[in-house]
Amino acid sequence: FGEESMARVIRWLGKQKVPLDSSVLDIGTGNGVLLVELAKSGYTNLTGIDYSPSAIQLSEKVRDKEGMCNIKLKVEDFLTPSAELSGFEICIDKGTFDAISLNPDNAVGKRKQYLRSLCGVLKPEGFFLITSCNWTKEELLNEFREGFEILEELPTPKFCFGGRIGNSVTALVFQRKK
């Protein structure tokens, strides 16, 4: 999703005056660059998970090169999270839900498991920021209707095709219900 996607998330957190010591989980961290940018912005309680050991190895290299040794990184499948993965105040997803949704083996069941996992790791009243290139706002509202309420749609680039205006990316902020 690129730098603008990261900047969008960091701007929102700053605008909301989210405390810098809030516990943040980057779901499907990939190369870990979002966590590095959050650390550069002053956030101190950062964890990234990815089911791919090579992604975690890459993110460790990026973290170490940037001197951000306080970022925690773990090989972990979000659909079957370990018991220690809990109590986060903020969860961020940029593309992981998309990837899970495209799984040819029981995508509907995996999306439901994602929601259960999210409810298990995110504290009540915690924030969930999702960026998707596969889902519209309405579809995401439907997917996360149980247990979450929409707080805000973050502005994303628009395009026009056939006289209709749309977005190539959807970015939403949800809050977990009590």
From TrEMBL:
The organism's place on the tree of life at top rank: Eukaryota
InterPro entries, sorted: Methyltranfer_dom, SAM-dependent_MTases_sf
A GO cellular-component term linked to this record: cytoplasm
GO biological process, one term: methylation
Keyword S-adenosyl-L-methionine: yes
Catalyzed reaction equations: L-lysyl-[protein] + 3 S-adenosyl-L-methionine = N(6),N(6),N(6)-trimethyl-L-lysyl-[protein] + 3 S-adenosyl-L-homocysteine + 3 H(+)
Entry keyword set: Cytoplasm, Methyltransferase, Nucleus, S-adenosyl-L-methionine, Transferase
UniProt-recorded Gene Ontology molecular function terms: protein-lysine N-methyltransferase activity
Domain Methyltransferase: 23-152
One of the Pfam families matching this protein, by short name: Methyltransf_31
Official protein name in the record: Methyltransferase-like 10
